[in-house]
Amino acid sequence: MKGAKLRYTTIQNWSNDVYNLVTKRAYAYEGARVEWIDGNIGSRVTMKYPGIYLLGQRAHGETLSIAFAGKNQHQDTGAKMVHLAPYTTSRTTSKSVSKSNGRTTYRGLLHVAKGATNVKASVRCDALLLDDTSKTDTYPYMEINQEDATITHEATVGKIGDEANILSDDKRIHRRRSTHTHCKRIHRAIY
Asked: What pTM value is reported for the model?
């Protein structure tokens, strides 16, 4: 619908014997705004990539994906942003934390169609590893078919390792509190 505003929020915490495979999509017409907030903390494997199709001029799409992978979990999350009209904008943000052999993956598609002029899109992925056995991956896929598109992609990986623990010991902060402090920094970066 022209000029519509939609915010969809979901937090999924399945048991560890569930394979969570999800397809979701939204269509943003002229002047519309779609915001997708997605939290994933359960299941053995999650594969979820909400898609936003920007079909009208000045439509905006935004996704925020937050994933936590614990023991033997794989959270494979991301987003699809498909720019099909001029002057559309999008922002994809992925935040993840892995521990105890957990694995997080960002997998995303950013597509700009020929004729979708003056598109502006950004993708940001931040991951935090809490130990030496956890893993994280980033697989961005970009199909840019319009030369005047402005696209940015940024990815960071942080690890709470010996340096953080030494700092914590110097300040007489317990390791658990140190981990909590580092996770709060990621939380602040989201908001």
From this structure: 0.84
